[in-house]
Design a protein that fits this description.
The complex is a heterodimer of chains A (about 900) and B (about 180). Chain A has about 900 residues and is mainly alpha-helical. Helices cover about 70% and strands about 5% of the residues of chain A. About 10% of the residues of chain A have low confidence. Chain B contains nine helices and no strands. Chain B has two domains: about 60 residues, no CATH class; about 120 residues, no CATH class. The chains are: A mainly alpha (about 900), B mainly alpha (about 180). Chains A and B meet through helix 1, helix 3, helix 4 and strand 2 of A and helix 1, helix 2, helix 4, helix 5 and helix 6 of B.
């Protein structure tokens, strides 16, 4: 087709498309007579126009701009309305300003459309019913529902009267309204809401955004009933439509929502709007926002009346209500002291004597009401008995059965569900509160963190324990004189600590244990359970302290725990758990003391632990875990004997223990725990040998354990403890072999260790054990180079690693092991430089420079040692560390001076 | 959005970001959805497509949109420019014998090539069509590049589907004629 024909061709084709076949023939013939080229073009175009030409079908199907925004974009039509501009966007939907577009008259509306897809599960009938209900409701303070309908895509929309106003809170802050003016605003909102409540219409989503103040100062409620219309009762997400901040607790729980829910929202809004400080006003708002719907004003008109009274300087009800509530609590606890206590409480609350008189009549009425509540009380008793049966009767009996975890979880959840219906009463009923705490703690135990015997639902466990803690703390706060609530607080804190510890949050765990310990310390007379809890807390705190290198405080906690467990065990000699706890406390005390180099305490503690375990094994010979614990302790004890100079005693204990470990594994081949015990036994044996200078024996032990660890690691790749054990063995063997003078294989061992724990990976995991091992592997390679006479290689290698080694230590400023390893690293580096400086073949200037580097390394080592000493982390022989480093520094300075002198001469 | 559009006209830089924010989330979701409906081996990143077209829309078009139909026309034009630019650069690369750079939009071009379409030639033909029949050229832009269905085109332009359908047939035929009369 020629371009100049285009306009003609279009004209002809458009015409001919509407014409029948004969007509076309005729017209084409006419055209051909005039312009054959044009006729040809028209004929082709006509054919093309008639056939389906897939080539020009849209390149993109359903592109973004044609779909979603077609419905809700400026200019879009919804019924007679044309969308003008978006007014806002919230969790529930978007709001558009729209204008009447059918030309009938000028009107602006706010159109609300739900966000999301067309599948919003609003049934048509429900939508229509609610719509008609709202449509007939006409109040000047409530934005009317004007229209509504469905988009072609099946999404509902609502057109509301458009209110040109400002949010309540913005209005108040912008005009810097004073308290009284703010109360008037809240009162105005309450009055409007009251009108709706009279018709049993609930707003359900009151928030400052929905309370608008017109320029003339009138308060208008918008989005009335929208929550009801757009909320889908069938889906749980429907509840999210209400704004959590203002929603009443019963609303969030998905229960039936009444006018009291709106009162709650107004209470919260009022608290945010009106500055606190006026006792009467604070009480009004506190009662309005009470979590218990029963205690709130039943509807908005009651709240409006209260605010009216306040505005008129008249006494308000809320203060009396809350004061009386407190008095009743006292009365229930001890009728004899009720009057005295009531007077105190009254004085504190600033109430007059009339209130007390009022309370006395109320109290009588309360007693009368009690008989009417008897039937209800019986029902409570039955449900609670059921809960007790579920927990004590079933749960506790199956607790130790294998495979019972899901059943236990089910039981605990059922128990929780039964109790939950009385949640509000738990604030006033001590027995119920107690039971709820128990159930929550068991739920936490069953959900658990890691480890067997629970569901591995760490967050769920923490939620349960927090619920228990909240309840216990509330009671303890209200009854500071009742020890049992403080013990409950300590118990829940302890459980919380356990959960965080198993989740790896050691700092939080420590904080919880510490808080529990502090709470218990204030408890006057401790019963058996409280004493036992205190002992457990000492044990946990001690273990955490030792892990962090705070040995002194760790030792004190552990000693206290050991004493306490012994005392408790004497009281209950048949309690095996107590015996085991006592053994563990002594064992941990031994570890702490061994870190001090305090062999006397170490030996006696471990011996005590051994004795208690042996007694337990005598009555439970089939319990292999006890056997393993005992053997592990024996290994430690043998090492302690040797370090304390009791060499033969240590060696013979080790030999018998190792034999027993091998026996245990032979009897239970494939038992992973027994296998791991053998690994540890061999590593201990190697250390034992090294401590006696028998490096050959050490190397033998290491060479036995390495293939075992490699095999196990192949079956469990990535298992951190195996990796660390193997790396430790390799590095220690490298050191032992270097000391033996057999350098062959040393480098390989160090490199294998380095490959096991890639630096970046260890750093990413913040694994300080891995960091320590890496540092030692670098030291090992440096020492190896030095042993091979390659001082240049040693200094080069170590200097290259120094930033990383320093970074590791700085990364864990609270831990002592990284610092110790850094000290060892600086010592190796200083030694290497000093060795290099001693090389007489090198030019004097270079040797002087080397001595300077050596001095610098020793000085850094000294700083590290002093840091450790200053924080009390050097014990026994270690206390010499700063002195030794200082001597190194001094020696190097002297060498330098004499070398400089010699060079000067 | 109209407020945003008006502010764009007034040269307000933040309005562009705001506008993007307003629709971009929806755009991306929708784009992702239509990608899923495509062949399983479709590797186009829909975000890239939307993003590039969108940047063009805001970056080069006259910066104000009267209404939704104007917006859709502009979006279709942006899409056309995006695709044609990629097609041209692909052609250049092919001529130079260079390795064809994997462009985010390459899949769309492949789709066009699979239909034996030369996007650059179509673009030229469309320019010619626009000189004498701008309304038809726009229709092609909305349908072919903008991806609007007949019904959507009708809704966007405020016309009946029958008249859009007729014009579409005509436009398609004329375009075909122009293409075959000017082989590249």
């Amino acid at each position: 087709m020629k371009p100049e024909h285009l306009a003609r061709v279009r004209q002809e084709v458009e015409h001919l498309l509407t014409v029948a076949a004969e007509g076309r023939e005729r017209r084409l013939a006419e055209l051909a007579a005039d312009d054959a080229g044009l006729a040809q073009s028209v004929a082709v175009a006509l054919t093309n126009a008639e056939r389906d030409d897939p080539a020009f079908e849209p390149l993109v199907t359903a592109p973004p701009w044609t779909d979603v925004d077609v419905e809700f974009i400026a200019g879009a039509r919804l019924g007679p309305w044309r969308l003008e501009r978006p007014l806002g966007r919230g969790g529930m939907g978007a709001v558009w300003l729209a204008e009447r577009a059918d030309g009938s008259y000028r009107q602006q509306v706010a159109i609300k459309v739900p966000l999301g897809t067309a599948q919003t599960a609003v049934t048509f009938a429900r939508f229509e019913r609610e719509r008609s209900l709202l449509a007939e409701f006409d109040h000047a303070g409530i934005a009317r529902l004007v229209d509504g309908g469905w988009t072609p895509h099946g999404r509902p929309w609502l057109a509301m009267e458009y209110v040109d106003g400002q949010r309540l809170d913005d209005y108040a802050s912008q005009r810097q309204l004073d308290r009284r003016e703010r109360v008037q605003l809240l009162r105005a909102a309450s009055v409007v809401l009251a009108a709706a409540h009279q018709r049993r219409i609930v707003h359900r989503d009151l928030k400052p955004q929905n309370l608008l103040v017109r320029t003339d100062g009138r308060v208008v409620l918008v989005d009335f009933g929208i929550a009801a219309v757009l909320d889908d009762p069938g889906s749980s997400s429907g509840r999210h439509l209400a704004t959590v901040r203002y929603a009443a607790p019963e609303q969030l729980r998905g229960e039936v929502v009444t006018t009291a829910a709106d009162v709650h929202a107004l209470g919260v809004i009022g608290r945010e709007l009106i500055p606190a400080g006026d006792l009467d006003l604070d009480a009004i708002l506190a009662v309005a926002a009470d979590p218990d719907p029963q205690r709130r004003p039943a509807n908005a008109s009651v709240l409006a009346a209260e605010l009216d009274r306040w505005l008129a300087f008249r006494p308000v009800e809320a203060r009396r209500a809350s004061g009386l509530h407190r008095l009743r609590l006292f009365a229930r606890r001890d009728p004899r002291s009720a009057f005295a206590l009531g007077t105190l409480a009254t004085a504190a609350a600033g109430l007059s004597i009339t209130a007390i008189l009022l309370w006395r009549s109320e109290h009588a009425a309360h007693r009368l009401a009690a008989s009417a509540q008897l039937a209800e009380a019986r029902e409570h008793a039955q449900v609670r008995q059921l809960v007790r049966d579920l927990m004590a009767g079933v749960h506790d009996r199956i607790e130790t059965l294998p495979g019972a975890v899901p059943v236990r979880a089910f039981l605990a959840e059922r128990a929780e569900g039964h109790l939950a219906q009385y949640r509000d009463r738990a604030a006033t009923d001590p027995e119920l509160a107690h039971e709820m705490i128990e159930v929550q703690l068991r739920l936490a135990a069953v959900r658990g963190g890691r480890g067997p015997g629970n569901l591995g639902d760490g967050p769920g466990a923490i939620r349960a324990v927090n619920a228990a803690l909240e309840l216990a703390q509330a009671w303890a706060g209200r009854h500071p004189g009742e020890d049992r609530w403080h013990v409950q607080v300590a118990r829940t804190l302890r459980t919380s600590g356990d959960l965080h510890r198993s989740g790896g949050d050691l700092a939080i765990a420590r904080d919880r244990y510490r808080s529990a310990w502090d709470v218990l310390a204030r408890v006057g007379t401790r019963d058996y359970a409280a004493e036992r809890l205190a002992a457990i807390l000492d044990l946990q705190l001690g273990k955490l302290d030792v892990a962090e290198g705070a040995f002194a405080s760790g030792r004190d906690h552990l000693a206290a725990a050991a004493r306490a467990f012994d005392r408790l065990h004497e009281q209950r000699p048949s309690d095996r758990d107590l015996a085991h706890d006592a053994a563990m406390a002594h064992a941990e005390l031994g570890y702490a003391a061994s870190s001090f180099g305090d062999h006397a305490v170490t030996t006696s503690a471990w011996q005590a632990a051994q004795d208690r375990l042996a007694a337990l094994i005598a009555v439970q010979p089939q319990d292999n875990q006890l056997r393993r614990d005992q053997l592990e302790l024996a290994l430690e004890l043998s090492l302690d004997h040797v370090q304390a100079g009791r060499t033969s005693k240590g060696n013979s204990l080790f030999d018998t223990t190792l034999a027993q470990v091998r026996e245990l594994l032979a009897a239970d081949r494939g038992n992973l725990l027994a296998e791991r015990l053998l690994h540890r036994a061999l590593v201990r044996g190697a250390r034992l040998a090294s401590a006696q200078g028998d490096h050959r024996q050490a190397v033998r032990h290491y060479r036995e354990v390495e293939p075992l660890l490699r095999t196990r690691l192949a079956a469990q790749p990535g298992e951190r403890e195996l990796i660390l054990d193997l790396a430790e063995s390799l590095i220690a063997r490298a050191e032992a072999e270097r000391l033996l003078g057999t350098t062959a294989g040393v480098a390989e061992a160090c490199h294998e260790a380095l490959a096991l724990v890639p630096h970046e990976q260890a750093l990413a995991r913040s694994d300080h054990f891995a960091g320590n091992l890496l540092t030692m592997a670098w030291v090992g390679l440096g020492n190896l180079a030095l042993a091979n006479g390659d001082a240049v290689g040693a200094t080069t290698e170590l200097e290259a690693r120094r930033p990383a080694a320093t970074a590791w230590a700085e990364r864990f400023p609270d831990l002592h092991w990284p610092l110790r390893h850094l000290g060892a690293f600086e010592y190796a580096l200083g030694t290497a430089w000093e060795k290099l400086a001693a090389d007489g073949a090198r030019p004097p200037a270079e040797r002087l420079a080397s001595l300077d580097r050596a001095g610098a390394a020793f000085a850094r080592g000294l700083a590290v040692a002093e840091r450790l000493a200053a924080s009390g982390r050097l014990h026994g022989a270690e206390k010499a560390m700063p002195r030794l480093f200082a001597a190194d520094v001094q020696r190097v300075q002297q060498s330098r001076a004499s070398m400089a002198n010699a060079a000067g001469r | 959005m109209t407020r945003c559009l008006a502010r764009l006209g007034a040269g307000d830089a933040t309005a562009a970001a705001e506008l993007l924010d307003l629709v971009y989330g929806e755009l991306r979701r929708t784009a992702a959805r239509c990608m899923r409906q495509e062949r399983a081996d479709h590797t186009l990143d829909p975000t890239a497509l939307v993003h590039e077209a969108w940047l063009r829309l805001l970056g080069r078009e006259p910066r104000s949109f009267a209404d939704r139909s104007h917006f859709l026309r502009a979006a279709s034009r942006a899409m056309r420019r995006t695709l044609i630019d990629h097609a041209r650069s692909r052609k250049r690369q092919k001529r130079r014998g260079a390795d064809v750079e994997p462009l985010p939009l390459a899949e769309w071009l492949v789709a066009a090539e699979a239909r034996q379409l030369d996007l650059v030639a179509i673009d030229d033909a469309l320019e010619q069509l626009a000189r004498t029949a701008p309304d038809l050229a726009e229709l092609v832009e909305l349908r072919f590049f903008g991806g609007l269905s007949i019904a959507e085109t009708a809704a966007a332009t405020g016309r009946s589907t029958a008249s859009v359908e007729r014009d579409w047939r005509c436009a398609r035929a004329l375009l075909r004629g122009l293409l075959e009369g000017n082989p590249t």
